[in-house]
Amino acid sequence: MNIDLSAFPTTLDTLHLGLGVSAVLFLVLFITKKSAPDDQDPTENNRAVSDQKVEAPVEQVAPEALKEVPETVVLKEATPEAALQLLTLLQQDGRFIDFIQEDLSAYSDADIGAAARVVHEGSKKTLDTYFTFEAIRSEEEETAISLAAGFNASEIRLTGNVVGKAPFNGTLIHKGWKVTEVKLPKLAAGHDASIVAPAEVEL
Question: Is this structure's pTM higher than 0.70?
Answer without folding.
Answer: no
